[in-house]
Write a structure and sequence with these properties.
This protein is mostly helical and 293 residues long. The chain has ten helices and no strands. It is flat, with a radius of gyration of 21 Å.
Length: 293
């Protein structure tokens, strides 16, 4: 049996790492950097054990255990990518932007349904298809977050260069060409992965009645996700027909488009998570009543 790890453990580690990153942002401090990396690594390790423990208890991968675990996997991937970048470039200070996102994801995950959805993935075929669907959505969301971050940094760097403001001591951002390239690639990858994720979800929902699932195409998260996808496809089409659109235009389009995707997914997951929690609680009460009778 895996040792139990509380959500508070890695949340506290990330908060301390965030505080040290703010210290490093204000002035160069080598000890703050190494301390922040140490606490972030400890938090990532604790979060890994937490997800593995919950998956072990539910006999499901973390991506399929519950919406709570799914959201924590998104936060885990974001922190992993950040740590790889932070170790690779000692002067690159992106923690002040990444940590708020990770902490927000953990906060949203805390509010989501933590009850394992074991009845939906009893069949091995459905479990494999569901894992593919969840994985595509997770990587698509991470790519969308990376696109929004690179777009925001592009606008910030563009303004800094336009006003001839020097960078803060100890703080360095990538060049405009690198940020523009990262922005475009993140936009394309996010659109591709989310498209495949939505498509696999639709195919999964078609077999839901046979599996006794409550997934329906009329659910708000499905409808609004489709509307956001259409808007994202229109934005991508505009980028493709334009001849060398300005970097600022692409950055703003990325923030609006991919930001809308993130708000839709996180907001509706939060709402539907509470609704599903109530529905499952009522279902469990009904089963217990029948058993008692």
């Amino acid at each position: 049996m895996m040792p139990h790890t509380s959500l508070i453990c890695f949340l506290a580690s990330y908060l301390v790492a965030f505080a040290l990153e703010i210290v490093r942002f204000r002035r160069t401090n080598r000890w703050a950097r190494w301390g922040g990396l140490a606490f972030a690594s400890a938090g990532l390790l604790a979060q890994t054990w937490y997800l593995l423990n919950r998956g072990h208890q539910a006999s499901l991968p973390p991506l399929l255990a519950s919406t709570h675990d799914w959201m924590l996997v998104v936060a885990w991937l974001a922190m992993l990518v950040y740590l790889v970048m932070a170790v690779g470039n000692s002067r690159l200070n992106l923690g002040v932007f990444v940590y708020p996102l990770v902490l927000l994801l953990i906060g949203v995950a805390y509010k989501l349904d933590q009850v394992p959805n074991t009845e939906l993935y009893v069949a091995q075929a459905r479990r494999s298809w569901g894992l593919l669907h969840a994985s595509l959505l997770v990587f698509g969301v991470v790519a969308a977050a990376a696109g929004c971050l690179s777009a925001f940094l592009y606008l910030l760097q563009h303004r800094r260069l336009k006003t001839s403001h020097a960078e803060r001591q100890g703080f360095q951002m990538p060049s405009l060409p690198r940020l523009a390239a990262a922005n475009r690639w993140a936009f394309l990858m996010s659109f591709l992965l989310l498209t495949l994720g939505y498509a696999s979800g639709l195919l999964l929902s078609f077999s839901a009645p046979a599996a006794g699932s409550t997934v329906a195409l009329s659910e708000p998260i499905v409808i609004l996700s489709g509307v956001v996808w259409l808007l994202l496809a229109a934005a991508l089409g505009w980028l493709l027909i334009q001849r060398g659109p300005a970097g600022r235009q692409v950055a703003w389009l990325t923030i609006v488009g991919l930001g809308g995707v993130l708000l839709t997914i996180f907001g509706l997951q939060l709402v539907t998570g509470h609704l599903h929690r109530g529905g499952r609680t009522a279902a469990r009460v009904g089963v217990e009543t029948q058993v008692r009778q």
